[in-house]
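User: quick one, fold this
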Amino acid sequence: MKKASLLKKTSPLLVIFFIVFFDLLSFGIVIPILPYYSESFGADAFIWSFVMAIYSIMQFLFSPFWGSLSDRHGRRPILLLSLFCGALSMVALGYANSILWIFICRMAAGIFAANISTATAYIADSTTEENRAKGMGIIGAGFGLGFLFGPVIGGLFVEQGFHIPVFIAAGLGVLNSILGFFILPEPLKDLEKRKANRRRFEWSLVQRTLSASKTAVPVVLFFISTFAFAQLEVSFGYFVMDRFSYSAKEAAYLLALMGFVMVLIQGGAIGRLSKRYGERKLAIVGFLMMAVALIGAGFTASVTLFTINLVFIGIANALINPSLSSIMSKAAPKEQIGGMMGIYQSASSLGRIIGPPIAGYIYVRLGMASPLYLSSTIMAIAGATAIFCLAPSKKADLSTQKN
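Assistant:
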């Protein structure tokens, strides 16, 4: 009986973890490969940046849609539908034979990867405020593992052809959707509220989210940090190729190392750190650490020093994302968590829409390190904004006083 009840208790969060993991696995596979693969179709870095951006354009448009739809019809059906269709988009990507085909497949993948907002709302439904950061850490761990195994899979199998690692990711997505169908329940405590709140996404919800500082500040900070991090994501492959003459496999392994660091932090330490220091302090430390590490990565001509800076970038990212997600989910009214978390995730997608073309343009015009310098400056601004504008939680203050 105990084993059965434990399985029932832990399985939903486990499935949420795998849902996020698949989304980032697919993204992690593509990031180190596309800079090299796009050249085979005659695309330069600037064109490739738009291939990256279209994924986030679709996330931006559909993240509030999926979040609000899950408020009306439940988290479970939306998660399962988006996961299965996302796997099909990866199958189509595996058969790509032109840059246009890749563009269309990335467009479809972005639509269904917008399920992150629903996964975040599911975690918020299933955890108390005290354990919210730990629950968000599950999502963060999924992100981290996606960045760990995605590049590894891409690096291991890219020499056999681009389609092989993509098909592997697609197969994992199908298995994940089957697993979710059998063991993912609906969060029953919010079922009646969702039935009574059968609304479509409204722009008035955006206005309500951005008019209150307690919800507006984490949204703005998430946009700023994602825009800055997109500079690294887009320029990374070209940077290590031009500065260190690295192949796609070597670039993939560097990204995997950063993902491994993120998993260590978000998979276990983030819950304890948030209870001791509070999400606000963790976010501030993450922003400032990221700013220093990015400028260090841009300056160094040593692979060793570059790798050390990547480790600190991974640590900083592992502190920022779950902390901001927890702050936002606590600030949002319970009956509007799905919609507001969708807006929050859309801020991230907006950062990845604007960030890639800028990164591609300044990489070509101003030099290979310019996206990293720009990202460092923006992260420093985000840290200052968090210091002056991000309100500390009362619980964090009390725990800090006790310590």
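User: anything notable?
Assistant: Residues 145 and 403 are 33 Å apart (CA to CA).
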